[in-house]
Amino acid sequence: MEGSLTGRLLLATPALTDANFARSVVLVLNHDDDGALGVVVNRPLDVDVAAVLPDWQPFATAPGKLFQGGPVALDSALGLVAVPGDHPDPQGVRRVFASVGLGSVGLVDLDTPPETISAELSGLRIFAGYAGWSAGQLEGEIAEGAWFVLDAEARDAFSDSPHDLWGDVLRRQGGDLALVASFPSDVSMN
């Protein structure tokens, strides 16, 4: 595989049945020769952001819940933000990728006082943990057919319907991938 997958989406194919990733949508935050790191953007937990970072709760995008970003380092928090338009990165934000006309997505330093940057953000999600791959591991999983690699839109990480995101992203691809969106979770029930 050539090129970085940073800013792209990994959608679990129906063949990926590992409980950590079945029907997951992963936003790749970094991908290089050393490996890859991303967050699962469609797994909200039944925990308000206020339970871990109360100062950030008023600024969290609905549903205002903590998301399980992946199986690695579940005791750590990672903040993902949307910056509208072509604005420069606010203080404490590092841009991950930009979408033409849709703004950019970045990581926020959660030690930054939220009130100093909240006016410059159009979305905020807090993730417990992340997904990580060692050098060559993700490329091997893609080659084995575990992941669809698709273009991300800035709004994907802040979807109003995170539970529906896997199917929504597949349907917007059209063609055969749109058909995969209706693939049953349990093929034995088909």
UniProtKB/TrEMBL annotation:
Q: Which Pfam families match?
A: DUF179 (PF02622)
Annotated organism of origin:
Kineococcus rhizosphaerae
Superkingdom as given in the UniProt entry: Bacteria
Assigned protein family: Belongs to the UPF0301 (AlgH) family.
InterPro entries referenced in this protein's UniProt entry, alphabetically:
AlgH-like
List the protein's name.
Answer: UPF0301 protein CLV37_106292
Q: Which GO terms describe its cellular component?
A: cytosol
User: NCBIfam families given for it?
Assistant: PRK00228.2-2 (NF001270)
Q: Which Gene3D superfamilies match?
A: VC0467-like
